[in-house]
Design brief:
The protein has helices spanning 2-5, 30-57, 72-75, 127-137; strands at residues 8-16, 21-28, 62-65, 85-87, 105-106, 118-121, 143-148, 162-166. It is an alpha/beta fold. It has one domain: 3-Layer(aba) Sandwich (Rossmann fold). The N and C termini lie far apart (55 Å).
Length: 168
C-alpha cells in the first residue's frame, strides 16, 4: 500500500534470505517520473542560473566539469550568455557541442589556459578523481566544495551539482 501511495506499481513481492527480507519489485508510474524529472530540471535550472548570474555580475569565470546527459536538460534552459566552459575527460565528447545549448566540450586541460574562479562538478561519483585532476591541472589553486547548487531526488540521486571555489 505504501509503495502505491508513493507512485509505484508493485509488480511482485517475495521473501528472501530464509524469509528475513521482504522484496518488492516495483515500477515507477510514468506520470510520477515525468513530474519528478520536470521538478528537478526546474529547480536545478533556477539555482544554477542564479549562481551563474551572480558570478557574471562579480566578473567571475565559471567552468563546468562533466557533459553528462543528466545535466543537458538544465543547460538547455540557461540563458546562453551565462553558460560556462564545459570540460569532460571523455574523448568521445571532446570537440563536440552539447545538444540544445551548443557549448563546445573541451578536454580538462583547457582549464589550465583559463582563469577560472569556480568549477561546477556535475559528476559527483567522480568528485574525488576530479578534485585530484584539478589540483594537477591548476597547482596551488586548491579547490574545495563550497556550495551545493543542485538537488537530489529519488530518480536523479546520482547527480548533485557541486561547486568548487578556486583560490588564486
Amino acid at each position: 500500500m505504501s509503495l502505491e501511495l508513493g507512485g509505484f506499481d508493485v509488480l511482485d513481492l517475495e521473501r528472501n534470505w530464509a524469509g528475513e527480507h521482504l522484496v518488492a519489485y516495483v515500477k515507477v508510474r510514468r506520470e510520477r517520473l515525468q513530474e519528478e524529472v520536470g521538478n528537478w530540471v526546474s529547480s536545478t535550472t533556477d539555482k544554477l542560473t542564479k549562481f551563474l548570474k551572480k558570478a557574471k555580475k562579480d566578473r567571475e569565470k565559471v567552468a563546468m566539469w562533466g557533459a553528462s546527459h543528466h545535466i543537458l536538460p538544465v543547460l538547455g534552459q540557461i540563458p546562453h550568455d551565462l553558460l560556462p566552459i564545459i570540460v569532460d575527460v571523455s574523448t568521445t565528447k571532446q570537440g563536440r557541442y552539447t545538444p540544445g545549448s551548443h557549448i563546445l566540450v573541451e578536454a580538462p586541460s583547457a582549464l589550465a589556459d583559463e582563469r577560472v574562479d569556480y568549477v561546477i562538478v556535475t559528476a559527483p561519483r567522480f568528485q574525488a578523481e576530479i578534485h585530484t585532476a584539478l589540483e594537477e591541472l591548476l597547482p596551488g589553486k586548491a579547490a574545495k566544495v563550497e556550495a551545493d547548487i543542485g538537488v537530489s531526488n529519488s530518480y536523479l540521486r546520482s547527480l548533485q551539482v557541486r561547486c568548487a571555489r578556486m583560490t588564486h
